[in-house]
Amino acid sequence: MAAKISNWTDVVLAYEPVWAIGTGKVATPAQAQEVHFELRKWLQANVSPEVAASTRIIYGGSVTAANCKELAAQPDVDGFLVGGASLKPEFIDIIKSAEVKKNA
Ligand SMILES: O=C[C@H](O)COP(=O)(O)O
């Protein structure tokens, strides 16, 4: 797969456990971090350390205002794919959870 990608700056990776999509069941921060870490490790070994460091790896699956800050605080979680909550006022809080990274 990596050989088919000519410009990694155009790529965003997403981890969406199928059991979490639209179910209200969210991965724990530790679960999300573990998978994102492994994806970044794969990029490092199979593409380059630079691509591993710069590629955004985002999480999707029942992200809400209640769980976004803890998820966003994980070192390898770079953002979210938000479904249902993007249609509610709490979406603002999810967007603001990016502040966790700026303050890290
Ligand atoms: O793109 C959105 C994802 O499929 C997650 O949807 P959800 O936040 O409703 O679980």
Summed up, what is this model?
Belongs to the triosephosphate isomerase family. One of its GO terms (molecular function) is triose-phosphate isomerase activity. This protein has one domain.
Outline the structure in words.
This protein has helices at residues 29-46, 49-54, 68-72, 91-96, 99-102, and strands spanning 12-15, 56-60, 79-81. It is α/β, with parallel strands linked by helices and 104 residues long. It has one domain (13-18, 27-103). Strands 1-2-3 form a 3-stranded parallel sheet, with helices on one face. It is globular. It starts with 11 loop residues before the first strand and ends with a helix. The model has no long low-confidence stretch (mean pLDDT 96). Bound molecules: glyceraldehyde-3-phosphate (G3H). The site of glyceraldehyde-3-phosphate has 12 residues, from loops. It is found in: Cytoplasm. Its EC number is 5.3.1.1.
- Largest sheet: spatial strand order: 1-2-3
Beginning-to-end CA distance, first to last residue? 33 Å
Radius of gyration: 14 Å
Bound molecules: glyceraldehyde-3-phosphate
Low-confidence stretches: none
Largest sheet features: 3 strands, parallel
- H-E string: EHHEHEHH
Structural class: alpha/beta
* Helix run count: 5
Amount of beta strand: 5-15%
- Tally the structural domains: 1
Report the average pLDDT across residues: 96
What is the strand tally? Answer: 3
Percent of residues in helices comes to 25-40%
Overall shape: globular
Enzyme class: isomerase
GO molecular function, one term: triose-phosphate isomerase activity
InterPro entries: Aldolase_TIM, TIM_sf, Triosephosphate_isomerase, Triosephosphate_isomerase_AS
Pfam family, one: TIM
